[in-house]
Amino acid sequence: MNSFWNKGEKDIIQGLDVLGLRSIDQHIETQLLASITTISIRARYLSLIPWAVGEFFDSHKDKVNLDSDTFRQLLMQVFDRLELVLILATNYEKSLDSKVLATGIIGAEVHKEITDEFNEKGEIDITILKDKSTGNNYTNPTYGTYYNPCRGFGLLGSSATAPVALPPNGIAIYQARKKVIHEDSGILSWLLHGGHLTKKMIAEEAKYFSIDNIDSIPEEMQLLQEAFINPYTNESEEVLESYTKFNDTMVWTLNQLDEPKKPQELIYNNYDYCTTEKSVNLSEIELDWFEFELRRRVHFSLELLLKALSYTLNELNGATAVQVVNNWIEDIKFSNNIEDGVEHYNAIMSDYHNSLGDDIFHKSQTPENSSEQALYAISRLEVCRRQSSKLLDSISTVENDYMRKAFQILDELHTSKVYESIIKVTNFCVVEPHLKTTLRKMGQGQQCSLRFFPEGKKLVPTGIDTNAGVSGSRLNNTIRMMSDIGICDALENGNFIKNDMSDDVINRLREIA
């Protein structure tokens, strides 16, 4: 067990993108899914937030003496209370119907104590839910999570004189809900002013605030559908391009939902289809989603190589890449999982290439031993190179494209031994991007996430392990929102399927295109 100078320091961070590669596939998906994020999950927030903004503005229109900081504090406190109401309303609806889906609720743990008190006593009397909400820098988590998605669909906007503005789409949502939730609403009064909230008040209007019941106000649902389909302005090329990509993704998605499928299946199926001989005249959206998955698979493979490298450097207390690979060759002799592991390392790359099946991504589990991880990582990279060889010219190029660099190395070394490919890919596609990315972040004032640093050719470990991971996809949240607003149906076990409205939406989007 080695001791390291920085072990135990509170300021050491693990780092989620220690090679700087995840940002590439995340950017691709951001372009495809408008402004929906990995943490914006349910569509009702998209309508509740502009409605709450509209009601707050309306209730404060005569209070001209409020300074901007106080105005913003009061607005954030409204969102704190809205956060709690949504939890209580959804819980009430779920008590009546177990099929109500509470997935994606924000703040359940934060508000647990107040929720428990409410459930026990049947009422609460409170105005300030969080002490920090009286500070100028506080942003309510619900508002912070859904502000950009709301902006992406034209439901919120920016203002020079107020914390936020309501553009036409947001005003329409506000007016639609105002037709149903009147000024004498008990919940509305509590949201705006705080004070006394009872179970009776929640029971009377729960369906209008439940996360899983947008169709309780049909016009609200229809407006959200229109916000997903129609650009909120025709005067911005950026907005029009964003909607084109998003609409193409909706059609691409719905066309695959004739049978129940999980969002991840759509991505996998598209990747597999694009890499078969049957694929001809691939659409731009098919290629976009192919590239997203290709880059995810490559960055996982390189991160796995980084994981194996970091672990072995820690064990050896520093070494060169050549020494690390020699250690893996010695170590794999004792593997119980890979027969003839040394022969694999010493095989000619072109011969090894022929032994690899395309099903490596679906049938193989990630090994735990570092010598096996390195071999698995290079195997995945080689399969990705082979599968994408005819499509690389059709996908984007990026600065410091380590995917293409790894593929080029594997192609150039096809007559060399596998271990030689591992050494070169490790040096140029793992060590190089890790040092560049981490030192750049440190230069920008971020904390240190170095796994090692160079002393000549030797890599000296910092004692921090790393894990390989795959970027979470926003597609799951997008389809969840589509089901929330009736464009498709959500089934059990995370599956989705087309409904009667799906084909209508497909036809409309094709007409728009």
Protein architecture, described:
- With 513 residues, the protein is mainly α.
- The chain contains 21 helices and six strands.
- The strands form three sheets. Strands 1-2 form a two-stranded antiparallel sheet. It has a two-stranded antiparallel sheet with strand order 3-4.
- A hairpin with a 2-residue loop joins strand 3 and strand 4.
- Helix 6 (168-178) packs antiparallel against helix 9 (218-229), helix 12 (284-316) packs across helix 19 (418-443) and helix 13 (321-332) crosses helix 19 (418-443).
- The termini are far apart.
- Mean pLDDT is 91; it is low at 1-15.
* Total number of strands: 6
| Shape estimate | elongated
How far apart, in Å, are the first and last alpha carbons?
62 Å
Which blocks of ≥5 consecutive residues have pLDDT under 50? 1-15
Strand content: under 5%
Structural class: mainly alpha
User: Can you give the mean pLDDT?
Assistant: 91
Gyration radius, to the nearest Å? 27 Å
The oligomeric state is single chain
Biggest sheet architecture: 2 strands, antiparallel
> Helicity, in percent?
55-70%
What topology, given as strand order, has the largest sheet? 1-2
Write the layout of secondary structure elements.
Elements: H1 22-32, H2 44-59, H3 68-96, H4 112-121, E1 123-126, H5 141-152, H6 168-178, H7 186-193, E2 195-198, H8 199-205, H9 218-229, H10 237-255, H11 263-274, H12 284-316, H13 321-332, H14 341-346, H15 349-355, H16 360-363, H17 370-388, H18 402-412, H19 418-443, E3 452-455, E4 458-461, H20 475-484, E5 488-490, E6 496-498, H21 500-512
Helix pairs in contact: 1-12, 2-3, 2-5, 2-6, 3-7, 6-9, 10-21, 11-12, 12-13, 12-17, 12-19, 13-17, 13-19, 17-18, 18-19
